[in-house]
Structure formats: structure tokens, C-alpha cells
Amino acid sequence: MISFDYTLLIPVLPLLMFLTLGIGGHRLKPLMAGLLGSAAMGVVTVLSYLTAIQYFFVGGGMGADGYVALIPFQFTWLAFTDTLRITLGVMLDPISVMMLVVISTVSLMVHIYSLGYMKGEKGFQRFYAFLSLFSFSMLGLVLATNIFQMYIFWELVGVSSFLLIGFYYRKPSAIAASKKAFIVTRFADFGFLLGILILSYYTGTFDFGILTQPETSPVASMAGVSFMGLSVVSWAMVLVFMGGAGKSAMFPLHIWLPDAMEGPTPVSALIHAATMVVAGVYLVARLFVVYHFWAADIQEVIAWVGAFTSLFAAVIAITQHDIKRVLAFSTLSQIGYMMLALGVSGYGGAEGTGYMAAMFHLFTHAMFKALLFLGAGSVIHAVHSNLMTEMGGLRKYMPVTHITFLIACLTISGVPFLSGFFSKDEILVAAFEHSKVLFAIEFLVAGLTAFYMFRLYFNVFWGQERHYHHTPHESPWVMTVPLMVLAFASVFSGYLPFTHLVSPDRLPFEVHLHWGIAIPSVLIGLAGIGLAWVLYKRPSRVPDRMAAAMGGFYTTVYHKFYIDEVYLFVTRRVLFNLVSRPISWFDRHVVDAFMNALANVTNGVSDRIKGLQSGQLQMYAATFAAGVIGLVLLALYYLGSA
Amino acid sequence: MNILHFLIIIPVLTLAGVLTSRSLKGVRWVSAVGMFAQLLVAIAVMVTYMGLRKGGDSAEMVLMESHTWFASLNIHYTIGVDGISSAMILLTAIVMFAGVFASWELEYLQKEFFVSLILLVTGVYGFFISLDLFTMFLYYELAVIPMYLLIGIWGTGPKEYSAMKLTLMLMGGSALLIVALFGIFYGAADGVHTFNLLELGQHPMPVEMQRFIFPFAFLGFGVLGALFPFHTWSPDGHASAPTAVSMLHAGVLMKLGGFGIFRVAMYLMPQAAQEQAWIFIILTSISVVYGAFGAIWQKDLKFINAYSSVSHCGLVIFGLLMMNRTAMDGAILQMISHGLMTALFFALIGMIYSRTHTRQIHEMGGLMQVIPFLAVVYMIAGFASLGLPGLSGFAAEMTIFVGAFQHGDLFHRVATIMAISAIVVTAVYILRVVGILLLGPVKNDHFLHLKDATWYERLSTLTLVVAVAGVGLYPQWLYRLIYDSLGPVAEKLLAAL
């Protein structure tokens, strides 16, 4: 039996680093803080790789029938009743171990890269403190043993994301973006929390191990209860998915992600491309058994939401000019792929291809999307602009960035034998077997993806050379080495034997490349690249004319279908002006005015009657006499009548 | 000697010390030392309590002592504590300790200020240890009276108006309580006439009597707990009150309301509580959302906090009304959590105000650049308020929600979902303030020269931050402590169902 006790250090080290840098960081030299943070992350990476090797390849995780969930450490954080308790702990199973590798790799690369990228920035130590906080929260999230622990860390990644998006806190746009990200995801978490509460009410547990047992899960007993025509499991799971959709920026909760690009670029690479935004995918995968067996209707919803988002975001990506926003929409689109794959997946053997593919794509996507963002950061670092209209011809000045960026573009476009090719192909196979319409959508998106990525690539590295303030130069090695490492991962991670590692029933299975689907999807990808070549390789006016020809449609897409405006309308006009403001008014002018009126009436009455207490003896005597006469008359009247 | 006596003796000695000190320095240090000693006593009470429980003492109240005071009416000076009162005493001590340091730089009549403040807090301690309703009521009034002076003399803005309003409304609550008090006295079964809480619990009132008396007791305490629609003293009162008074008032005094509701109203009148709960559940679930939406529109920092308190304290009473052990436990955790973080907020607002001389958020901005320490602490307080895990608010709110969800019927469900929805609105108003006040460019050039926190300000705020984080990081021991002490009232409520 291999001991996994050391895995506790994986989340704890970044936490300690956060406390160290957060409290004492300003006393350290910036470089020192950065190196400390990176060193801690380096140790975490080594431990994560060790865990993965021991779990997958040395047999530490293999039980009698398939991989087992190991819990090397846990303690009770809050026990509501004897059965309903929140524990904090470390759970190792195939997907959490895989996530450890993803998170630690990307996080370490970002830590190292930022040594160069953030050099000289005010608040360098704070930046590393927040990165550590984020890494801690994200690692805690994936290692969660129960759904409430996940919710706790879910909130913590949310707040780290808030802090990092708003890192440049003097910039109003960054503040607005960080607020938006937090509030939109908070709204989604409201659903998540309700889902958890419903689930725990019926099952009496938060524990993943118990909830996701296909045979013995207490969820089965709640499937018969229904509310408003839908089983309560479906209610709970759709609400939980709402949380996942918020974090993973699925339509219609996607609006925060493009704005989140206000954060420093390494942050976008880490949080808003590789790790946090896939938390929703991870959540669905974590509860996959529950979705698949007892909330199949919601699983279908997930597939469609994923498919729609992937198409919708890909269309928008074509029109954007800010390179980070193109990448953000691309991220949305790719996460849509993963959601779709989970939505169409079955359970057991090759049926579980979709589930495996989602995790596979999550892995490869993390590598190449982090690479794209870091590459974009390197470009932005050189030309001091985010707009591709201010870039062009950079291949000569930045050879390493150029080549690694090209590799990433080829990978995401699904060019054969790079990692994206394998993972995307599996998703398309799974979609094809479930629904032809979904397959058609994703097939189209594959073409769009290749097109918008190469539109970006040609615009930045080819096209017209711009007038730069100073000649762009290649970034320092602390920035290019991470690019090379990630490029290596982008190329080769497709050869990881995922079917032997990850599956819904945790049993290894075999699938083979489906050439009937792979060949057309490669072709449409190449077509997309070709079209981009024609339109953007050389400076040309054709794209502008095409945009003009499309008129209103183009503008609508460019403005992201005006969905932000709809949200603004609902929040500003409706909630602020029609709810909050009237409430404030009501409180002051009705509730409080009533209390004041009580006081005023009391005052007024006393004012009227205070004249009676005049102090004049004659007046008192007269009143006294009148009273006596009145009483005597009254007495006589009653005595007489009796 | 019973350790509980020290809770009254030390403030009285401190009072004497303050009255006899000749210098400002003396006044400050005597208060500080006194309140530090009081903090130690509060810790000792907690330790003693836990030791007794561990030793197997399973009495409802421990450290009890009783002296006949007014024999003809059967009034006694009866004191004793359980886990909940020990926790509330500790809360009071922490807030008061922080409050003294937050008032370090008071500008005039310092001696009189500290005298009133300590008098007030003596009343609070007395309230928490009393088991005789009459004594309890007396201590309560002792706390309310100095409040009038503290706001009326040392306040800001329309202070006379606010002081009068607050006092009158709280006195209105007291008037209801007096009725309840005598109803309880004469209503107890078996012809028992006593104010002793435990004895009254043995002789429950007839149901008809309960129905009549319960609303008086509930509303009487509810006014103090800022129950909608009797909360309007809170925005004005807090806005005008000086820093330490706001801290103590929002932090502790408002909790007397929730404390009284379960210790007196629900404990003695469980049937009526079960019957009438629905009305108040509606009121409180409204109040949670109403307060949060109200806060979005405010421009004055203290008003924002006052409305936020309406929302958070609404949740306290909401949790109590769910009447199961988990939810009630959450409600008490929320009292403690809210007490700590709201005290922190008011301390910070006072410190910011003393620098910028304004509380209008739009006149400030970019404070993170000029007073980073205070700004960071403000942010932590904000995160605690919006329920970030690891800080106290999260554990408390989640406990209430989990408890409330144990009711399966539609009415409770809808009310609970409404209450939970406030977590979103809370995020909106907290981040709005953080965005406008702390982040962004510095709006006013005068602010560029502001000094960051002094040592006493650091001490004051860090005490509270540590407490907030302590409760938030490991809520289990507090949860357990409260859970065990909730047994008697929870059993009565359950039996009354």
C-alpha cells in the first residue's frame, strides 16, 4: 500500500505561502517574494506529479475493480447533525489527480512567467500572494471530499479571481470587471447552494463518495419525488449546474469572462483559461453518476448549453479585435465542447467516451490555452497594446513567441497528431453517437475555431507591420521558457493514455481513432486555416468589406449580441431603480415617517392639552365646582330613576 | 466567590477608577486595563463553563447563585450561565475591548464618555447573566439609558433627534416587555408567581395565555433586534452615534433582542411560538432582502451598515424562528459573527471619518492607496459580511440555511430561498462600497497626506479581525457549545409542535 499522506501538503503549501506573502510580503524584496512563491509552487508540482505517478502508474490507485477514491486526510469542519457534516479533506481519484497535474503545471509556469511579466509592477508581492491564494483554493476545490467543501473552495476561487482581476485597482475598468465577475458568479452560486441544500435534505449527506455510488446512492430514493412536474433530483442538479455554468461562463452566464481580461495576462492564463473556468466542467464530471442515472433530462440540457455556447462564442470570437478577448471567447467555446462531451456521455466501457474526452480535452486545452495566453502576454509586453489592429509582422522580432504561438494555434485547430486533435476527435465521436445535430454544430465550430485562431495569428505575426514606439523585442527567458514547456505539453499530451486513466466507471477501456470523423474534422480545420491565410496573411481590405457587407449582423456579433446590455438593463434599471431605490424611499418616507408621525401626534396632542395645566387658581376652582355640580346632578338623576 | 460576580465588579471598579483619574491619559488607560481585565474574566468564564461541562455537570445553567432581593414579589438576584450566555459575554468583552481603543482620540468630555460607556456595558453583562426576569429587565434598562446620553452628547449630525428616536423606540419595546413580564409573572401554571426563568420553565403557561403574551415579548425584543418594520431607529441611531457606541450597540446591544427572543419568549411560550411563527417568518424573510436592497442605494457609510445590519439581524431572528437546533444554532452564530464584523465596520468607519471628515462614499475613493492598512481591513470586513468561507459570516449563514432547509413544506422553502437570495444582493452592496471607497483613483488631493492606522487603531481592528477569522476558520467548537445549550429550548419547541 502506497502512502499518500504527503498530498496534504499540496494545498497547504500555497496557503502558507499566501499567509507569508500576504502578511510579511511588503517587507520582502519583490524578487524574493516571487521566487518564494514559485519555489513553493515548484514543490507542489513535484508532489502532484509524484501523486499522479503513484496513483496511475505504480498501481497506488488501482483497486480490485478499477480506480478507487482514496482519502488520505480529512477532518470534520462543521458537523450540523450526526450525519450531516462538512469535512475538509483530500480525496484522490482519477479526475482529481489529473486536475492536480493540470493546476500545478500551469500555476508553476505562470508563477515563473510572471517573474518577468510583472517585473517592476507596483504590488508585485501582493500579486504573488494572490496567486498563492488562488492556487490553494483551486487545489482545495479539486481535492474536495464532499460537495460542501467544494462550495467553500468554490467561493474562495471566486474571491481570488476577484482580487486578481482587480489587481490594477486604480483602473476603473478593472474594478468594474472584477465586480462583475464576482456578482455574476455569486448569482450562479446562489443556485449551486440551493442545489446542495435540496440534495442534502433528501440524501442526508454531502459526501461525494456516497452520492456518486451507482448502486447504493441515496439519490435514487429521491428520484420519485417531484415538484412542479420535474423530479427533485432534476431540480437539484439543474441548480448545481447553474453554479457550474456560472463559473465556467456558459451562456447566458458568460458575460463576466470577456471583461475578466482586465486582469494581468498571466492571471488570465491561469484562472480564466486553464483552471478556474473549468471548475464547472469538473463539478459536472464529479457528479456525473447522479446526472446520468437520475437526472438524464438535465444531462441533455448540459449538452445543449455546451453546444450552444461553443457556437455562440466562436462566432463572436471572429469579430473581436482585442487579442485577449478573442482568446476569452475561444475559451468559452472550448469549455462548451467539454460540457457537451459530458452531456452526451454514457456510462461504462466505450459508452463513457464523452466523459473521458471531456477530461482529456480539459487537460490538453489547459496546456495550449495557457500557452496562447502567455504568448499573447509576451506580445502585449512587447508592443504595449491589446489590440491586434496595432500589431503585425511580429514574427521577425519575437521568434520564440511566434513559434510557440503557432504550435498552440495548430493544436487548438485540431491539426493531426498534436494534442488537440486527439481530444477534440473523441468529443466529436461521442457527439456523433448521441445526436447528429450536436455533432453538426461542433463540426462547424471546429472550422470556426481554426479560422478565428489563424485570423489572430496572421494579424499579429504577419500582416501589415505597424509603427511601434520602440522596436519590439523577444521577452526574457523567464517568460519564454514557460512558453516552450507548455508548447511541449501541447504537442505531446495527446499521447497520454487517457482511456486507461479516466472513465465514468473508473475502469480502463479502449477506443480507437475514428477516421470517418477525424478526416472531415481535420479538413474543415484546414479549410478554416486556409481562409484565414487568404484573408489575413497579407494586408488586405477584403475582411473590412466583408464585415461592411454583413452590416447589422456583423455589428450585433461585434457587440456580443447585446447580452451585456440586457443584463445592464435588468440590474441598473430594474433592480436598482425599480427595487432598491423604491425600498430606500419607502423605508424613509413610509415606515420611518409613520414612526415620526406617532411622535408628532403625541407632541401635538400634548401641545393642545397642556393649556389645561395652566396654574391659575380661579380656573381650577371653576372646574372643580363645575365637576361637583355635574356629579351631583348625575347622582340625583340615577337615584331618582331607581 | 462566583466568577460571574466579577463581570459586574470589574466594570464598577473601572468606573470608580475613571471617575477618580485626573488626566486624559489616566482615563484612557484605566478604561483599557479595566476592559482588558474584563476580557480575561470573560475568557475565564468560558473556560470554567467548558470545564464544568467536561466534568459532567449537565445542569441547564451552571455557576448559579441566587439572593432574595424583594421577597414580597418573589424577586431574586439570580445569576447563572450556559454556553450561549458565555459566548455572548465573550463577544461583549471583545467588542468592548476593541471599542475602548477605537475611542482613544475622543475630543471632549472623555471622562464622562467612558463612564457612560462602561455603565452601558455593565448593563449588557448583567443582562446576559440574569436568570431572573426582573433583574434582567433592570439591567436592560441600565444599558438603554446611557445610550441616550452617549448619542445625544458625543454624536454627530442630527444627534438629538437620533438619540431621542432611538431611546423612544427602544422604550416602546420596553413597554411591550413590561406587559409580557407581568403576563409571565401572573400567567405561570400552578399558581406559581416567580420571575425565575428556570422555575417558570417548569410551570408552563396555559396556551391561551401564551397566545396573548407571546407577541408582546417577541415584538418587545424584536424592536431591539431591528425587526422590520421596527428597525428605523437603527439607521438614524447608528449614523449619529459615536464610534464605540455604534460598535457596542450594533455589535452587542442588538443581540439582546435575539437573545431575549429565544431565552424568554420561545422558552416560556413554545406553543404560541410554534403557532405564530409564520407571521414573523414572513416579516423576517422580507427584512433580510429588504435591508440588503435598502443598503444598495445608500450613500453614507453608516447608513449602508445600518441597512446591512437590518438584513443580517433579520437572518438571526429568521434562524431562531426555524425552531430546530441547527437553524437556531446558526442564528446564534450569526449574532456573534454579526456582532464582531459590524463592530469592525463601525470601528473602521469611525477611523476613516476621523481622517476624511466625511462618510459620503462618493466624496472618497482610492483609500487603498493612502491608508492601505485600514482599507485592507475594511475589505476583510466586507468579505466577512458577504459570507466568504474562512470568515465568520459564512459558517453562520450556512448553518442557518441548512437548518432552515430541514423544513420540507413549501412555506418554509419559499421563505428560506428568499432569505438565501440575499447573499447575492449582499455581494452587490459590499462590492459597490469597496469599489467606490477603497479602489480607483484618489479623488481628493487632501487625502494624499492621510496617515495610516495608529497602534491603538491597529490593536482595535486586529482584535476583531482575529476573532472573525477564528470563528470562521474553525466554527465547530462554537457550534457544539451552542448546540448543547440549545437542548432545553429546542425540546420545549419540539414538544409544542
From TrEMBL, chain A:
Q: Which Gene3D superfamilies match?
A: 1.20.5.2700
Which positions, given as ranges, span the membrane?
A: 6-23, 35-57, 95-115, 127-145, 151-169, 181-202, 222-246, 267-289, 301-319, 326-350, 362-383, 403-422, 437-457, 477-495, 515-536, 617-639
Q: Which GO terms describe its biological process?
A: ATP synthesis coupled electron transport; electron transport coupled proton transport
Q: Which residues form the NADH-Ubiquinone oxidoreductase (complex I) chain 5 N-terminal domain?
A: 77-128
Name one molecular function that GO assigns to this entry: NADH dehydrogenase (ubiquinone) activity
This chain belongs to the protein called: NADH-quinone oxidoreductase subunit L
Pfam families referenced in this protein's UniProt entry, alphabetically: Proton_antipo_M (PF00361), Proton_antipo_N (PF00662)
Q: Which residues form the NADH:quinone oxidoreductase/Mrp antiporter transmembrane domain?
A: 144-445
- The answer to keyword ATP-binding applying to this record is no
NCBIfam families with a match to the protein in the record: NDH_I_L, PRK06590.1
* Alphabetized UniProt keyword annotations: Membrane, Transmembrane, Transmembrane helix
Q: Give Gene Ontology CC terms.
A: endomembrane system; membrane
Please indicate if the UniProt record lists Membrane as a keyword: yes
Species per Swiss-Prot/TrEMBL record: Breznakibacter xylanolyticus
Signal peptide, first to last residue: none
Q: How does it sit in the membrane?
A: Multi-pass membrane protein
> Where, subcellularly, is it found?
Endomembrane system; Membrane
UniProtKB/TrEMBL annotation, chain B:
Q: Which residues form a coiled coil?
A: none
Domain named NADH:quinone oxidoreductase/Mrp antiporter transmembrane: residues: 130-415
Keywords of the record, alphabetical order, are:
Membrane, Transmembrane, Transmembrane helix
Q: Does the keyword ATP-binding apply?
A: no
Provide a GO CC annotation, any one.
Answer: membrane
Q: Which InterPro entries match?
A: NADH_Q_OxRdtase_chainM/4, NADH_UbQ_OxRdtase, ND/Mrp_TM
A Pfam family annotated for this chain is Proton_antipo_M
Stretches that traverse the bilayer: 30-50, 85-106, 113-131, 137-156, 168-189, 209-230, 242-265, 277-297, 304-323, 335-353, 373-395, 415-439, 459-479
Molecular function GO labels = NADH dehydrogenase (ubiquinone) activity; NADH dehydrogenase activity; ubiquinone binding
Q: How is the protein disposed in the membrane?
A: Multi-pass membrane protein
Q: What is its main location?
A: membrane
Compartments where found: Endomembrane system; Membrane
One GO biological process term: ATP synthesis coupled electron transport
Q: Which NCBIfam families match?
A: NDH_I_M
UniProt record similarity statement: Belongs to the complex I subunit 4 family.
Q: What name is this protein filed under?
A: NADH-quinone oxidoreductase subunit M
